[in-house]
Amino acid sequence: MQIACVGVVGCGLMGSGIAEVVARAGSDVVVVEADEVAAKAGLARIEKSVDTAVARGKLDAATGERVLGQLRVVSDFDALADRQLVIEAVPEVEQLKVATFKRLDDVVEHGDAVLASNTSSIPIMKLAMATRRPEHVLGLHFFNPVPVLPLVELVTSLLTGSDAAARAVSFAEDSLGKCVIRSQDRAGFIVNALLIPYLLSAIRMLESGFASAGDIDTGMVQGCAHPMGPLALTDLIGLDTTMAVAESLYTEFKEPLYAPPPMLSRMVEAGLLGRKTGRGFFDYER
Length: 286
Ligand SMILES: NC(=O)c1ccc[n+]([C@@H]2O[C@H](COP(=O)([O-])OP(=O)(O)OC[C@H]3O[C@@H](n4cnc5c(N)ncnc54)[C@H](O)[C@@H]3O)[C@@H](O)[C@H]2O)c1
Hints:
The protein has helices at 13-24, 36-55, 61-69, 94-107, 124-128, 162-175, 191-207, 213-224, 230-237, 239-253, 262-269; strands spanning 5-9, 28-32, 71-74, 85-88, 114-117, 137-142, 151-156, 179-184. The chain has 11 helices and 8 strands. By secondary structure, it is of the alpha/beta class. It is globular, with a radius of gyration of 19 Å. An 8-stranded mixed sheet has the order 3-2-1-4-5-6-7-8, sandwiched between helices. Nicotinamide-adenine-dinucleotide (NAD) is lined by residues 9-15, 32-34, 38, 42, 89-92, 96, 100, 118-120, 141-144, 237-238, 241.
C-alpha cells in the first residue's frame, strides 16, 4: 500500500514541521489539534514557515501555495479515519500519548495503517499496547526544525511487524528524502540518549556558577564547531520537552546523568520554556 494520505496529531513545533514536509512531498495531510484555537495557531505556524521558505527562495511561490492547499488543520479526531499513516506529535507526556494511541486505534479504519509516534523518549511498546494492533505501531522520530534536518530515527518495538517498518522507512526515505537510522526500543533511542546528558551537563555547569551561559555556548560553538551551544539548543527544543525526555531516560535507566537538575525544573515551573515562550537561558523576540 503506497502511503498517500497522512495524518498528524498535534500541530506544535514538531507536528507543524512534519505536516509541512509531508505536504511538500505531495501527500494529502490532515492535522488534528486539541481544539479550534490550537488548530488556528497550528495552521498559522505552518503558513509562517512556508512563507519564510518562499521568501528565502527555498520554495517557489506556486509550490508554497500547493503545500498549503494539501493541508487541513482541524480539531475533529474523526478526520483521521481514512489515513494510511498517522504520526503523533502531542507533548511528551506518557498518559497523553497512551490516550492518543487508544483513540487512534478506535478511529483509524485502514487495517494496515501505520500508527507512528514522534516521541523523543517514551518506549514505543507502551504506546503499542494501548492499541489492538501493536504490529502497526512504531516510532518515527523527526528532528527540529523538521524541514531542515534530514534525520529520522525508526524505532521498532518487540511487536512491530516488518511490513509496517518497511513501509515507514520507504515513506521517510523515498517520499520525504530523509535519512533513516534504526534504534531498538529503549528510552531516548540513539540521539537523545547521547544528547540529553550533554545538555543537562551544560545546565549543571551554569547552575554551579562554573561559567556563564554565553561562555558555555561560545565554548561549544567556537571550540567544537557545533552549530549552536547546548543552552541555545535546549531553548530551541523547549525546556519542558528536555525535562520530559530526561525524566523518561531517568525512569528507564536510573542513571544520575539523566536526572533533571533543579535549575531546569524551576525554569519549567516558572514557564521559562525557551524560544516558544520568549525566555529560557536566553531571551528571544516573539
Ligand atoms: N521540540 C523538539 O525539538 C522535538 C524534537 C523531536 C521530537 N520531539 C517530540 O515531539 C513531540 C511534540 O513536541 P513539540 O516540541 O512539538 O511540542 P509542542 O508543545 O510544541 O506541540 C504539541 C502540540 O500538541 C497539541 N496537543 C496537545 N494535546 C493534544 C491532543 N489531545 N490532540 C491533539 N493535539 C494536542 C498542543 O496543542 C501543541 O500544539 C513530543 O513527543 C516531543 O518529545 C520534540
